[in-house]
């Protein structure tokens, strides 16, 4: 009987520890001195020729979806990207996220595009899985739709972590 109790205790600890690890919020100071909070990007889509990683970034005032597509256009072309992102969620609705910024990070080895989540849409993004992202980067060869296959609930989990942190 003691062995069963010990096994349940160990399982409870492992499950609880995993749940805590999912809220590993990172931060960094930007060049302008402001602080942003973010998660490591999670793969939403991958094939042999392309992939898309997504994570949530916030300045504690606004929430952004950060996309890291691979392959990505060269910096000269990528900086021309100004189109909005269209997201389809599991509630069968379409959401338009305004383009905020295109960045090349880690010595230009990663391209990240930030899209602002409208405050009125935050509730939907925190409840419904991501299904499709329509990325229209006109002026480049980078016009794609991504049907999400992996980690569809990552946006929900990351927003829940941020909201939980704000409550503290």
Could you characterize what this model shows?
This protein is α+β, with helices and mostly antiparallel strands and 168 residues long. 25% of the residues lie in helices and 40% in strands. It contains four helices and ten strands, in the order αβββββαβββαββα. Strands 1, 2, 3, 4, 5, 6, 7, 8, 9 and 10 form a ten-stranded antiparallel β-sheet that branches. The longest helix is centred in the first third of the chain and has 20 residues, at 2-21. It is globular, with a radius of gyration of 18 Å. The N and C termini lie far apart (39 Å). 24% of the residues are buried.
Shape: globular
Count of strand segments:
10
Using only C-alpha atoms, the radius of gyration works out to: 18 Å
What percentage of the residues does DSSP assign to strands (E)? 35-45%
Total helices: the number is 4
Proportion of residues in helical segments: 25-40%
Order of helices and strands: HEEEEEHEEEHEEH
Mean pLDDT: 84
- Head-to-tail CA distance between termini: 39 Å
Low-confidence stretches: 2-20
Class inferred from helices and paired strands: alpha+beta
Task: Describe the sheet with the most strands.
Answer: 10 strands, antiparallel
